[in-house]
Amino acid sequence: MGDQKGPQPNWIEAAPPKGSFRSIFKWGDPHAYKHPNARLYRLLKEAFSLADDHFKVPIDDGCRPVAFDRPAKAVSPEQVTAIRQIVGDENVSAKSYDRLKYATGKTLEESLRLRQGEVQAVSDLVVHPRHKEDVRQLVAYCDRERIPVVVYGGGSSVNFGLRPAKGGITLVMGTHMNRVVQLNETNQTATVQAGIMGPDYEAALNEAPRRFQARHRYTCGHFPQSFEYSTVGGWVVTLGSGQMSSYYGDAGDLVISQEVVTPSGDLKTLDFPATANGPSVNRMLIGSEGCFGVLVEVTLKIFRYLPKNRRYFSFIFPSWEKAVDAGREISQGQFGMPAVFRISDEEETHIGLKLYGIDGTPLDRFMRLRGYPPYKRCLMIATAEGEKRFARNVKRCAKAICRRFNGLYLSGYPTRKWEPGRFKDPYLREDLNDYGILIDTLDTAVTWDRIHQLHQGVRAVIKLRPATICMTHASHFYPQGTNLYFIFIARARDIDDYTAFQDEILDAFQRFGGSPTHHHGIGKLFSPWMDAHLGEAQMAVLRALKRHFDPNNIMNPGGQLGLDLEGRHWREIR
Amino acid sequence: MGDQKGPQPNWIEAAPPKGSFRSIFKWGDPHAYKHPNARLYRLLKEAFSLADDHFKVPIDDGCRPVAFDRPAKAVSPEQVTAIRQIVGDENVSAKSYDRLKYATGKTLEESLRLRQGEVQAVSDLVVHPRHKEDVRQLVAYCDRERIPVVVYGGGSSVNFGLRPAKGGITLVMGTHMNRVVQLNETNQTATVQAGIMGPDYEAALNEAPRRFQARHRYTCGHFPQSFEYSTVGGWVVTLGSGQMSSYYGDAGDLVISQEVVTPSGDLKTLDFPATANGPSVNRMLIGSEGCFGVLVEVTLKIFRYLPKNRRYFSFIFPSWEKAVDAGREISQGQFGMPAVFRISDEEETHIGLKLYGIDGTPLDRFMRLRGYPPYKRCLMIATAEGEKRFARNVKRCAKAICRRFNGLYLSGYPTRKWEPGRFKDPYLREDLNDYGILIDTLDTAVTWDRIHQLHQGVRAVIKLRPATICMTHASHFYPQGTNLYFIFIARARDIDDYTAFQDEILDAFQRFGGSPTHHHGIGKLFSPWMDAHLGEAQMAVLRALKRHFDPNNIMNPGGQLGLDLEGRHWREIR
Questions:
Q1: Can A498 be counted among the known catalytic residues?
Q2: Of the residues A298, A347, A569, B48, which has the fewest C-beta atoms closer than 10 A?
Q3: Which residues are the active-site ones (chains A, B) (predicted)?
Q4: A236 close to A284: Cβ distance less than 8 angstroms
């Protein structure tokens, strides 16, 4: 805890009771947690004018057992029998707990509702396909019978992408379809079943010499914050970005070929890294969020695993403008890109230095002395990877640029302090929510020439709300732009009050030149902004593809990607 | 000429007569030529058992004036009047010469036919749109009236992509729509009208400080062999690759956003470098070869122009296998990629060393002495670009790898000898054709694990033909594979004999695991292989998009991309 003075909050450390709502909405490992440290705790108390007493008894902890009465919407008993015949009894469940669990992602809203025992859309039946052939038969059967199909990967969706708005079946990909099918060292690719979890995939690649008699060790290059609880298939269909995407590319960039089962038939794309044979169908499938079909296998680029070459560096800048200028200049410098690459605005820097345990240390005093005071200074953390001299040169060039923009070199220390917690921050949410404090994130893509208008515009909207913490960073860099990732901590009267606030932020993304999301996907949550964002003509193209792949709209119907809203709001679709 | 002994061939140096067939099929600048040097000339005489006398009087030089009688197929006089009203009289031509010129690309077949005065499909009317609005009105009008529309960029198509199989109008994009619309230095992008020619675009970027008050000079990074006679729009719609694509990316990788006018309406995609808002419609338009609509404007990535940082290097390997191994290892080395990057097989190396004037020099003797004899040795030429130390490190790492694979360092000399002629080789064709010798190229994409079977299989098919020279190189590198580019020099009984030979090579691409082309596009010529290559399911997706964008099939109908063949061969479609 660091700071042992004063009473300690009563953070929950026990694993959620089996069968409880909490066991569904809690992030990650049931036994793991990451409590706010003493500095963050103090900051929260100050920000929301709360006393220690407030943190004694959790409110709505969601520990009660899941129970609800919801008859199947779209699957008849005869159909259940038919489905059981396809995959075997042991791979089908109609238990309430399963129907809810696999219908639930990780939006704050879902978590708040489940704390109160409020159940929204659930699937009628949970099905665990054993292999491609099961998926083929299931999709063909469901298409014939008009049964909605939703695909569940790791369950980390933050956009209601798993919501079975019209009931039907949920396919759980990770139960059986979770293997590395092939490591092709000559082509430097790996073929995996879509349901493999991130850490299993990475471990297989790291251990390639032992597991596949490979000459080298490999890495997947994709490390989203949800890495530990997401599937490779999920990365691809939602267009995810990892924390090292600036160097390795976004999930979509890693895909060489795919096998997708759709109602209109199977597609298997080819494994050429580039070819001029018309528009790439492979690309069209990436980001389709379960609306076109079920991704069953995917072949991805892999990379040599060279952790010993990794270089760490970090800088503090006198202002956000200078940090952005340095970030852009590095991205356009033509010496390769850093891997981890993140700049934090003034408020995030202030809180980040607390979280990473730098606030109050000699490094903090050094920064203050050198003219980088709190609430002005902005932090950049970065690593460089790849071949040894390449990585060294990325760091060297980046340092030269940072100095030109008045950056003060902080060594690799802040990056190293950030690194161990990089997949753990989602655990903070349960602690905060236990005491009625909301924490959520929204992210948006932006070009360099609109970054300041977007940052200022969105921040102003968020800060209009009284006592609201708003931390912003850019963490995925391209020569042409970056993303802005907003983390906000607030209190809300009720769930509707919160979702209205969320809508205001998304409106601001639209108004100030951002996209509805940079790497969270659209799902259903962001669908109301799709028409205005892409425009009618582009939406019509997506809908034409939808009609081609899924003429009966059985694949993730009910607002996903904004394809079948037909003038309604996604919440109205049932 | 180099070697002045013996009689000189009577190569044509005069510009083709105005209005002649030759003025249409001749490559590039009417006054420019690149004759085979003495060594190549000797090799041709030997290979085809020809005496000097054979090279005295050109056969079928195509210098006669264009004349043919072909009534308009798809445009009535009333429709001509309507079209004149849209763009103005001065921007419409129904002259035979124009109808043929803008219907003709640069396939060997077209050139052979025109030498004999044989005219195949021509457009009914040539139209030079002035701006987007003209294109909009033209496309809307032609859609209403069911008039086919073909788009002409620089005319360098090598796949009958410009063939107006069903008549109609040809839009010439370069006449008016040839400007840089905007240089956005903050985002490091340029927006251009689709009809701008390569050199004009590159000059504008190189001179950005003067032309756009920019801080830096820029380069487009895309230098196909057709660079001097192709348009930026053409690069994008045909999925071209430049000679430095290994570093800068293929044309499709450079596209940030586009504006396309289609029969079903205009599309303007957004300028985010990456965003997770569903499948990328921007990507779907790339490579559509005029089948979906007319690309009118495109925004591309640009790069800092840093010629002083360029490094040259070249290696000779004891075998093709070693050259391939080194090429693959460099591509997978994670230190960045060379820009120019080419490995030549035994036969191309043999001829290349003659062409670059290295054969018979001290460097040649050095190679022989060190154990790299002709017909075994394989040449690699390369450059590195980008930031200074980055480029130096690419060269350094590549050298270390080449040495591991028994490569002998040849300094940058061979690359420098290759460089000045890099856009000039197409001029050789006219000289050879003038004396009945055919030279043509076909290229294919390949993964690393199939490169040898493909190279050997295709080469065997080509070498089955008596007295046929076959040179092969790989020149576009990816971690997962490369391309194989076959140049063959042969004699043929007649055009049908030649096209049958071409078909055999394309069959071999298919049989041995290549794609129909790596960067020549599909056009109509390669359309017979599309169904087998992509498979029915992928073709159905492309056709669904075609129906969406162009429900009446007015955009480049008659086999383009294999979309509307309906069981026929493209040559049958009229």
A1: no
A2: A569
A3: 485
A4: no
Strands (E), B118-254: 125-127, 149-152, 169-172, 180-184, 189-193, 218-219
- Measured torsion, CA atoms of residues B127, B131, B133, B137, in degrees rounded to the nearest 10: 10
The fold adopted by the segment(s) B426-511 is: GMP Synthetase; Chain A, domain 3 (3.30.300)
Burial (0-12, 13-18, 19+ Cβ within 10 Å), B29:
exposed
Q: Does B519 reach chain A within 8 Å, measured CB to CB?
A: yes
Q: What is the pTM of this model?
A: 0.97
Cβ atoms within 10 Å, residue B37: 18
Element (H or E) spanning B447, and its range? strand B438-447
Helix (H, G, I), strand (E, B) or coil at A445: strand
CA angle centred on A354, ends A352 and A360, rounded to 5°? 130
Tens digit of each residue's pLDDT (9 = 90 or more) over B70-83 = 999 999 999 999 99
- Provide ipTM, 2 decimals: 0.96
Alpha-carbon gap: B261 to the closest alpha carbon of chain A (Å) = 11
* Chain B (259-318) residues lying within 8 Å, Cβ to Cβ, of chain A: 264-281, 283-289, 301, 303-304, 306
Q: State in Å, rounded, how far the first CA of chain B is from the last one.
A: 46
Cβ-based contacts of B522 with chain A (< 8 Å): 276-278
Ordered by start, the domain boundaries in chain B are: 77-172, 180-304, 308-419, 426-511, 527-572
3-state secondary structure of B379: strand
DSSP B46: H
Q: Which CATH number fits domain A307-422: 3.10.20.30, 3.30.70.3450, 1.10.4160.10, 3.10.580.10?
A: 3.30.70.3450
Q: Looking at chain A from residue 51 to 90, which residues have their Cβ under 8 Å from any Cβ of chain B?
A: none
CA distance A263 to A64: 39
